From TrEMBL:
UniProt KW Transferase keyword: yes
SUPFAM superfamilies: Nucleotide-diphospho-sugar transferases
Protein name: NTP transferase domain-containing protein
A Pfam family per the record: NTP_transf_3
GO molecular function ontology, one term from the record: transferase activity
Keyword flag Transferase: yes
Length: 202
């Protein structure tokens, strides 16, 4: 499938291992957060950014998330393996001459405006990759141009796309959105996200 805009690859294929160590009967993406859930909020913010979405799922993805994808008519692809494998399979599924933004689905605090700005910086075309930073720390979503396609397709294992950033021209974008650094791996992370969203409405 071809798209003329950068596509957000929303990664919801992980096993949530650290979360399950503390709450084995639940999944972090379905955890309650700000009168919603972790996944629903992440999806809401991506949808508000106005970019096309490709949802990456796996056999570990809760059925309720699959139901949301069907209800919202969100294209999804069943992936397998580690994060590198998932990104590779997603790029192969959603070809985009305008590039891709990679965003883990456990990051519900990223503002829609930040997602749009990362996409805009990618379209400017002064670098192969764009990564937002806050206080000098790199966060998500990370954007990749079509110049990175071969490297993204070659990804394997759990390492993600760090090697692609290291081997291509990277432009960082400092922003005032601390939500780019807040991923949810544990119940304590969820509590921190709840406090953040109370003080920083998206």
């Amino acid at each position: 499938m071809l798209t003329l805009s950068p596509i957000v690859l929303l990664l919801a294929a992980g096993q949530a291992t650290r979360w399950r160590e503390e709450q084995p009967d639940t999944h972090k993406l379905t955890a309650d957060l700000a009168d919603s859930s972790v996944f629903t909020l992440t999806l809401k913010h991506v949808q508000a950014a106005g970019l096309p979405i490709g949802l990456c799922v796996s056999s570990h993805t809760p059925a309720s998330i699959m139901e949301i994808a069907r209800r919202e008519d969100i294209p999804h692809h069943i992936c397998s393996g580690g994060m590198g494998d998932v990104i590779s399979q997603a790029v192969a599924t959603w070809q985009s001459p305008a590039g891709w933004l990679v965003l883990p689905a456990d990051m519900p605090c990223v503002a829609p405006a930040t997602i749009r700005e990362v996409a805009r910086q990618l379209r400017i075309g002064k670098a192969d990759c764009v990564a937002p930073t806050h206080g000098g720390l790199r966060g998500h979503p990370v954007a990749f141009s079509v110049q990175c396609q071969a490297s993204l397709l070659a990804l394997r294992g759990d390492a993600g796309a760090r090697s692609v950033l290291d081997s291509h021209l990277l432009r960082t974008m400092e922003c005032d959105d601390a939500g780019i650094l807040l991923d949810i791996d544990t119940p304590a992370d969820r509590d921190r996200a709840e406090d953040f969203l109370q003080h920083h409405p998206r």
